[in-house]
Amino acid sequence: MTKPSTPLSSSQRPASQLPVARRDWALFLDFDGTLVSLAAHPDDVRVSPHLKAILGELDQVFGGAVAVVSGRPLDQLERLLAPVSLPMAGIHGLEWRDRDGTRHTAIDQPAQLAACRDALATFVEAHPGLHYEDKGVSLTLHYRSVPELAEACREFFEAQHRALGDTFELIDGKCVLELRPGGYHKGTAVARLLDETSAFRSRTPVFIGDDVTDEDAFRIVNARGGHSIRVGHQDETAANYSLESVQEVLTWLESMTTRDL
Question: 3-class SS at 22?
Answer without folding.
Answer: coil
